[in-house]
Structures are given as C-alpha cells and as structure tokens.
Design the sequence.
C-alpha cells in the first residue's frame, strides 16, 4: 500500500512538472514571435540621419529651431523642466553600446542628433494606460494630447529619453507662437510626432525641410526604391540601443 | 400634533427653498438669454444651423478623434462639401469672435470646455 502511494505521488509530480514546463515553453515561443520583425505591409515611415553631414557647420540648430517654431515647443532654461523634441547629445551617450575606441574623432567627438525613434515595438505605447500614445499603421508613434493624463509611464518606459513632461505652463516660454498648431498644457507629456500634420498633407517633416546640409532623409522603408532604402543600401547605418528589441526606425549613417 | 402648524409651515418653506431651481425659470428669466453674434465669411455653415446649435460639441469631438487618431483630415458634410477638420483653421476662420460666439453661451450655461487651454484662439479685433 505504501509502495503504491509513493509511486502515485511520483507520477503525479512528474505529470505536473510536464504540464508546467509545456505551458512556459509555449509562452517563450509566443514572446519570441512578437519581437520578431513583421513582414512589411503598407507604408513604413523612417528617417535616415547622416552623422557626417550633420553638424558639418558647428553649432547648427536649424532643425531644432524649425521644430520649435512648427510645434510651439517651449524654450525653458531650467534643464529639469525643459521640453525637447529634437536635440543634440554626446555621441557616447547616444550610442552607449558602440565600442569603437580608436574610431575617427571626427565622428565620435561630435554630438549626435536625437529625437523619437518611432520604434516598431514601442515600449511607451505598451505601458500607456489611456492609449494616449500608440503606433499608427504607417509606423509613426503618435500622441493624443487630449488623452494624456500625465502619469509619465511612457517616459519611464522609453529607453531613449525622447519624451518630455510639461512641469509648468509652456505658453510663457514659447518665443514665436505658431497659431496653426496647439500648445500643450501643464501635466502633459510630449515628443516628436514625425510632423504627422505635414506628412498627412504630403509635405516632409519640418526638420528635414529646414536642414541645409540635407543630412536628414525621410521616407518609406517598405518601398525598395525610396531614398531612405537607397541610402541604407549604400552606407553602413547604426541604430540606438538595438539590443533592447525596440526596433528603432531612425538610422544613423556613419 | 401640538406644533402641526409650525412643522407644516417649516416644511413648506424648506421645500420652496430646496426647489428654487425648479420653479425659478417658471416666473421668467431676469438675465436675458445670450444671443451669440455670428460674423461669417461663408454664407452657410458646414451643417444646418439647428444641427450645429444642438450638437457642435459632438461634431468637434468626432473631428478630434478622426484627425488625431485616424489621421484623416477631411470631413464630408451632408450637402457634399469637403471641409478640413480644424478648430482654429476652419471653425474660427468664420467665427473669429470667440468671446461673443463661444463664451457668451458657455458662460451662461456654466460649461467650461478646455479647447483653448492648448488650441490658440484667434486674435480678436477690439
């Protein structure tokens, strides 16, 4: 009788282990599927930034200024409160994974242009409790400022620091008000939207139009004949923190 | 019922006070109903006047969602006209007098839409 109970318990334990193992295995399989790159469908907006051409002129801020004017981005002097859509950062802070100790100083000593990466797998959109930020079918990670409740989950989730929070009323800090575009209010998160209002009218984003060096190229990644695809074929490009699996859609030509 | 008279009088007074908002309009308005001043460049609004009066807020909400969330920017009105869905670009181009057109009714009804916290109101001619 004791023998029987013992073998029964062994068998039951083994069966439970098998069941648990199978479900976790299938779950692993599932997560592997969601992070893989999906087959291209429709239009996929992306940007290619030529790091060599960009900042050829020292202290050029044409794109940043154009963006400020187009979207009523405030200029707040306090770095803890500042609001940024497109700006410059040190190369090693932008590409912390790039180990290139003796690379050309000309490249790594210059700051790099950073803005929202419009990831294919955007962590910000996943955590937003109100769906105020989401991915459009054409790949733009959009924001609906009407819906944002200012919880800042998205800011915690974004590994690139692309999002800013309005800690104060931005209106007094806007130099030249663009009356065709809204401002934001205190308590709302904002970021680059790839100029959805211009793209939907068939125009290029404000930063691309403002760049005199033509260092920024905007286009459809799913069209093999597009300018962005041509550039990516002809030169080597890096992306920010690719190991995180967010699939950023801003490519930096080096 | 020693104090029946007092109780009933008190009750009647209480009811009269509590129901003040109900019977007050029956006597007649002392504050005149606001008449929004309409200054238009176009002859006709995008939808009939009655529709706009009754449900402009629903229209604006649906415009907001269609533009921001679906990226579609053109509205087909009932009489077949294509209109760009924009509060400051379309509505306020015809109705630039926000204080007389929007605020007069909204203040009277004590509603405070937050449109203008972000959207920029047209410059008013004074």
Sequence:
């Amino acid at each position: 009788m004791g023998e029987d109970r013992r073998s029964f318990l062994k068998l039951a334990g083994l069966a439970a282990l098998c069941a648990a193992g199978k479900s976790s295995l299938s779950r692993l399989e599932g997560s592997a599927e969601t992070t893989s790159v999906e087959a291209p469908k429709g239009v996929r907006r992306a940007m290619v930034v030529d790091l060599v051409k960009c900042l050829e002129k020292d202290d050029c801020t044409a794109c940043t200024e154009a963006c400020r004017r187009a979207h009523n981005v405030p200029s707040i002097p306090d770095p803890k409160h500042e609001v940024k859509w497109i700006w410059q950062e040190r190369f090693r802070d932008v590409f912390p994974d790039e180990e290139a100790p003796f690379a050309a100083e000309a490249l790594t000593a210059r700051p790099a242009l950073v803005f929202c990466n419009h990831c294919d797998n955007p962590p910000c959109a996943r955590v937003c409790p109100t769906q105020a930020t989401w991915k459009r079918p054409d790949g733009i990670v959009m924001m609906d400022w009407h819906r944002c409740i200012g919880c800042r989950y998205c800011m915690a989730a974004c590994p690139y620091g692309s999002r800013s929070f309005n800690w104060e009323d931005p209106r007094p800090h806007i130099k030249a008000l663009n009356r065709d575009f809204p401002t934001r209010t205190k308590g709302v998160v904002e970021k680059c939207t790839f100029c959805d209002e211009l793209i939907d009218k068939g125009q290029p984003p404000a930063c691309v139009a403002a760049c005199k060096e033509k260092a920024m190229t905007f286009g459809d990644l799913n069209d093999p004949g597009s300018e962005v695809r041509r550039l990516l074929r002809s030169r080597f490009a890096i992306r920010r923190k690719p190991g995180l699996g967010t699939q950023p859609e801003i490519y930096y030509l080096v | 019922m020693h104090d029946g008279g007092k109780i009933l009088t008190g009750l009647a007074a209480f009811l009269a006070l509590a129901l003040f908002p109900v019977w007050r309009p029956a006597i007649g308005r002392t504050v005149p109903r606001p008449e929004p001043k309409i200054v238009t460049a176009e002859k006709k609004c995008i939808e009939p006047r009655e529709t706009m009066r009754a449900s402009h807020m629903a229209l604006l909400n649906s415009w907001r969602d269609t533009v921001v969330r679906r990226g579609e920017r053109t509205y087909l009105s009932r009489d077949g006209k294509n209109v760009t869905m924009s509060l400051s670009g379309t509505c306020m181009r015809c109705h630039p007098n926000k204080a007389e057109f929007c605020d007069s009714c909204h203040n009277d009804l004590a509603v405070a839409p937050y449109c203008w916290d972000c959207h920029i109101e047209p410059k008013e001619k004074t």
Remarks:
- The longest helix of chain A spans residues 2-35.
- The first strand of chain A starts at residue 45 and ends at 50.
- Confidence is low (pLDDT under 50) at residues 31-40 of chain A.
